[in-house]
Structures are given as C-alpha cells and as structure tokens.
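Thread amino acids onto this structure.
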C-alpha cells in the first residue's frame, strides 16, 4: 500500500453543510476506489498568504489515505481541478518518516503543547 496525503482549500463562502459535503465527496471517491482512509483533518478557516480567486481566507482539509496503486491520484487531482469549490490542492506521497510524523502528530506527541496550570 502506498501512503498519500492530500491537502485542499475549500471556498469559504459556502455554507458549513456544503463545505462538509465537499470534503465528504472526496472521502467517498477514495473509498469507492478501494483506498483506506487513515485520517481526515478539518483544519478550519485560515488566512491565505496571498489572495486566491479574490479570497483572502479558506477552509483547509487534509486527508491521509493508503492506496494500492498510484493511478488514483491522477483521477483525484482531475476531480479537484474540475471542482469550482476547491481553491487549491496539494497531493504528497508519504515515506515512512512522513507516516510516522503524522501518527505522532495525531497522538499529540508533536505540535502545540498545552500549558500546565500554574501551581498555587
């Protein structure tokens, strides 16, 4: 199985139901092609570094999945290009270090640490 991660930005003018339906569309596409979804991360609304399609913010999603073949990526990227709701996307093939990093991040070993409550 080959590990991939795809991150995409959804147009923020859509309703929250439409945004979730957009992400679910791609999860369903991956499932129908025999992929195993490892993790779906809704990163939320973020400011863009530069305007895209006259928008300064977007809803970020990240899907990590395993696929038996790489041909699916072409089909997925074509679907992203045709979908007007998707502002940008990036597909990355993960090596063993990327898979381990994502697993550690999900388990809370990497990333933002919560501050300990001050002792009185």
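Threaded sequence (120 positions):
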């Amino acid at each position: 199985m080959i590990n991939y991660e795809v991150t995409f930005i959804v147009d923020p003018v859509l309703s929250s139901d439409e945004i979730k339906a957009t992400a679910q569309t791609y999860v369903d596409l991956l499932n129908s092609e025999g992929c195993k979804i490892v993790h779906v991360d809704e990163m939320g609304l973020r400011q863009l570094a530069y305007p895209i399609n006259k928008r300064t913010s977007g809803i970020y999603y990240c899907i990590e999945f395993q696929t038996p073949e790489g041909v699916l990526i072409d089909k997925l990227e074509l679907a992203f290009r045709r979908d007007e709701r998707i502002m940008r996307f990036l597909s990355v093939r993960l090596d063993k270090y990327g898979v381990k990093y994502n697993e550690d991040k999900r388990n809370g070993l990497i990333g933002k640490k919560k501050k300990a409550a001050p002792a009185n």
